[in-house]
Amino acid sequence: MEMSSERKALADRYARMQAEEGLVDVKFLLSNPAEATTDEVYREVNAMYEALERKEAKVLDFGDISVH
């Protein structure tokens, strides 16, 4: 079975993160897996990382823990 381009892009990103940053594990839990295909999840996760790289993200502070 051939890997989709979205899945390959994410696998390549995680391989780089493992080599460069020591990434060990990543998990995404879907509240309702029937609402998205596997490729849609890969596409959204890739889009999230791309937005982070472009600095288009904000830190959310819920006031429940202190992170330094």
Give an overview of the whole structure.
The chain is mostly helical. It is built from 2 helices and no strands. The N and C termini lie far apart (43 Å). The model has no long low-confidence stretch (mean pLDDT 90).
Q: Encode the helix/strand succession as letters.
A: HH
Q: How many β-strand runs?
A: 0
Q: Which descriptor suits the 3D outline?
A: globular
| Uncertain segments | none
Determine the structural class based on helices, strands and strand pairing: mainly alpha
How much of the sequence lies in strands comes to: under 5%
- Determine the mean pLDDT: 90
Q: What summary fits the major beta sheet? A: none
Alpha carbon gyration radius = 14 Å
Portion of residues within helices: 40-55%
Secondary structure tally, helices: 2
Calculate the terminal CA-CA distance, rounded to whole Å. Answer: 43 Å
Structural topology:
Elements: H1 5-21, H2 38-53
Which properties best describe this structure?
mainly alpha, 68 residues, globular, 49% helix, 2 helices
In short:
With 68 residues, the chain is mainly alpha-helical. Helix content is 49%, strand content 0%.
